[in-house]
Amino acid sequence: MSAQNVNVCDIGDDVKEVLKKFRFQKHNSNSALILKVNREKQALEVDEELENVEVEELQDILPSHQPRFIIYSYKLEHSDGRTSFPMCFIFYTPRDAHMELQVRFNSIFSA
Questions:
Q1: Where are the domains of the chain?
Q2: pLDDT tens digit string along 61-109?
Q3: Which CATH superfamily is domain 9-69 in?
Q4: In what helix (H) or strand (E) does residue 92 lie, and over which residues does it extend?
């Protein structure tokens, strides 16, 4: 049996460009890039880009019934005085999210 690439969801050039810009920009504070799946287009879209946001604040910003992908950049001060802004990838799926969306997001995540 041969492995095949399954296209679960398209990622357009515009989204790739926003991701690239977010990744390489000089951050001064905690930032988040929130992505969602457009069910009709079966495409990943930028939902929101936030500056100066704490991870705890994301709870109030994220929808309570729809999954999201979050790329979060936060300020980290090292013991030697350096400051860096590492990024982490967060897969957010609320318990009450529609099952189809949960499956689609999980498929994208594992692809």
A1: 9-69
A2: 998 888 899 999 999 999 999 999 999 999 888 877 666 655 655 555 5
A3: Severin (3.40.20.10)
A4: strand 87-92
